[in-house]
Amino acid sequence: MADASALRDEVRAWLADNWSDQLPLGDWWQRLADAGWGFPTWPRQWFGRGLSSDDAKVVRAELRAAGAYGPPSGVSTFLAAPTILACGTDDQKARFMPGIVTGREVWCQLFSEPGAGSDLAGLATRAERDGDEWVVSGQKVWNTGAQFADWAILVARTDPDQPKHKGLSYFLIDMRQPGVEVRPLKEMSGDETFNEVFLSEARIPVENLLGSLGEGWRVTMTTLMNERDSENAAMGGGGSFVGRPRLDATIAEVVAEEKSRVADDGMALAMGGGVFRHLMEQAQTFGATKDPVLRQALMRVHILRELHRYNGLRTKATLAAGGQPGPESSTGKLMGSEIARQMRDLAWQIQGPYGQLMGDDAPLRGVMQKYGLFTPSASIAGGTDEINKNIIGERVLGLPKEPDVSRELPWRELKVGTQRT
Q1: 42, 90, 362, 380: most buried, per Cβ within 10 A?
Q2: Class of the domain covering 261-383
């Protein structure tokens, strides 16, 4: 752990020489990447500083105090990058990390399928070797931001004769090629954040296999451990969670645009870490801080958020040390789902009859209404609450494993996904 005082002085001096909201966003993100302050726990050779999680908190605090815009956020930096760092070759890191940390390349995740949600290992998308390429066909769904993505992390079946967990491989796929069709899905909030993606003989160079052939499930668990640690999603504090950043616009322009559309993107609000601030603003507006019952409820949410953040720091420390997080990620996932529900219910309780309104008629242009409609996804994404309870029951409490007669059978013999009759 570095000397906190010296670290603060170093970050402040660097910010004094480099930070300005009149910089083009792309220039600023390049400066953060070159200096390693955007993702300080990452290795130095891959745009980090090799700092501990506690030291990273000091860095982020100084960035916030200076009003500096954070590094890119979203699937690119909290799912793709950590998985590439943990499982990729040096050539893969050299190819993909620069575009991720500077926001030049946007990523999405191609995991779930219509017939393989909670039972992700039952997925049916196939990848078959053809010379120096893999040819991929299948369908994916609930793919956040796929309509904006340049690249995707993809899990596909490479050996149907192996049991479902053993015949999978993990790929990095170009989304801007023939054979990849993205169709947005309309959500009950009115947003089109999620998509379904159809792959029709899309091609992947053999060098874009991440990890070893047939070890896709192990690599997938690396990704899901990060996804279940939702604190990772908000660690950047900058950049829209879903969308294509305007790298040529000044940061002042980008911030103004984000403020004007804050109520128009439930997912960006949910993952951007600003929900509690809006909740407190509404509590002040409606006088909830003077109500002892509501004030106690606000304090309960605050305490849960602090515990959740501590759990997230433990997970980050494990990853930074080169290890794999364990059941604590599932604990954090369940806690995050509960916090989301409590904030949703408390916001509507504070608003009273105004909670029935939407859009410009609602308080704060319906920020908490959008968040409330998005909240159910917190119990689904990254593994359902039920799946994570099973993980905790089996790996922490030592309870018997849930019976699974399909675990050792060849995948092609299973009645899963599109093979059900």
Answers
A1: 42
A2: mainly alpha
